[in-house]
Amino acid sequence: MADNYDYDVLVIGAGPGGYVAAIRAAQLGLKTACAESRETLGGTCLNVGCIPSKAMLHASEYFDAAANGAMAKMGVKVTPELDLDAMHGQRKDAVKQLTGGIEYLFKKNKVTWLKGRAAFEDAHKVKVGDETVTAKNIVIATGSSVTPLPGVEIDQRIVVDSTGALELAKVPEHMVVIGGGVIGLELGSVWRRLGAKVTCVEFLDQILPGFDGEVRKESNKIFKKQGIEFKLGTKVTGVEVKGDKATLTLEPAKGGDSETMEADCVLVSIGRRPNTDGLALDKAGLKTNERGQIEIDHDFRTGVDGVWAIGDVVPGPMLAHKAEDEGIAVAENIAGQTGIVNHELIPSVVYTWPEIAGVGLTEEAAKEKGEVKVGKFPMLANSRAKTNHEPDGFVKVIADAKTDRVLGVWCIASVGGTMIAQATQAMEFGATSEDIAYTCHAHPTHSEAIKEAAMAVTGKPIHI
């Protein structure tokens, strides 16, 4: 064991970044502990984020297909009845199985779970609950939490955050979603499908900040068609709760007259912020940047020797898969190997219907860097999407005009989140649009749309 320390590696936080870092470190022969204050492992993602929201999204898609005639169109006549308790039950079951699975993996890999909140006493000593432990290397993987809206109190009854929005005991009549980002659109979609009227209020003039411009516009159209109403370029200046109703005060982002709107559920989803409060970073000799993040170098080292940081608490997109990759890389670096993450190629997915996914540069960002060629292919012309009654969306491939190297791929398709993996891998290998265009794709699959969009870069798709 390292220099009389209790552990070679202590990971603070057992979310996707932390638990993966702990398991990988243990696999590499390091004596490892992981501090986590929740009753279950897996962090936000498994307990109240990615996993339970997908359970509700998937179940609500089935209900919607039965209720809106999509199944009848295919010759399956049903009259659905919503059993919300059972829907919540299968969500909780998925969470229980997966969080329990991580506990099993900790035992299997001999990772010690230290239960309690962690705070630094110095760069190698941490107090976890009532216990003080030392470690040669400490990895901060404390994740993020919901960004509050100034002056708006979340009571998890009428005004909820993403956690509360997963737990609603009945379908709201009118849900107002504050924020047109990924989380608001996903959870808004769940309750819209189950019968709520949903209004999305976004400060910017378009939804999905950070996504390709064309994808943002097309997504907005699709969601409107599905019945979500949008108030873009609008600021929420107040939320007042009386009894079972909330009254929101809205005003144009660029100034003007205010208006009010009534709702029986308000979902605040304006983003997330790093969890650093209570860690006593100063005792370890660390401080955060102006965004509350811990700055790191390419190897995930902080400015203090032996202290590392990964995931939502460091700069970059707040995504579980980015944290997981960093967890593997940081453990390998601690073990003296070479752990790297290509931060240029972190895919983003919105798990609405259809899914929205992208990797690499948007067309706007690519054009700022130089001349580009763009190929597009509509899902309407894809045979599998056609037979599945999934006509919405398109695939877009952005390539460098001189070298043909693929700079970005964006898609809206029912299985967009799965399709984007192919594009990410191709780009990891430095693929040109021609490489993708001349790779055989199975027929009939949604992924053929990627091949056709790549062919369209040089102007010759077959099916349009």
TrEMBL record:
Disulfide bonds join C45-C50. The keyword NAD applies. It holds the Pfam family Pyr_redox_2. It is an enzyme of class 1 (oxidoreductase). FAD binds at K54, T142, G143, S144, D312, M318, L319, A320, H321. Residues 346-454 form the Pyridine nucleotide-disulphide oxidoreductase dimerisation domain. Gene3D superfamilies: 3.30.390.30, FAD/NAD(P)-binding domain. NAD(+) binds at G179, G180, G181, V182, I183, G184, L185, E186, E202, G271. Residues 7-327 form the FAD/NAD(P)-binding domain. GO terms for molecular function: dihydrolipoyl dehydrogenase (NADH) activity; flavin adenine dinucleotide binding. Its EC number is 1.8.1.4. GO terms for cellular component: cytoplasm; transferase complex. Binds 1 FAD per subunit. One of its GO terms (biological process) is 2-oxoglutarate metabolic process. It catalyses: N(6)-[(R)-dihydrolipoyl]-L-lysyl-[protein] + NAD(+) = N(6)-[(R)-lipoyl]-L-lysyl-[protein] + NADH + H(+). Its cofactor is FAD. The active site is at H443. NCBIfam families: lipoamide_DH (TIGR01350). The active site is a redox-active disulfide bond. Belongs to the class-I pyridine nucleotide-disulfide oxidoreductase family. This is Dihydrolipoyl dehydrogenase. It comes from Stakelama pacifica. The lineage of its organism: Bacteria, Pseudomonadati, Pseudomonadota, Alphaproteobacteria, Sphingomonadales.
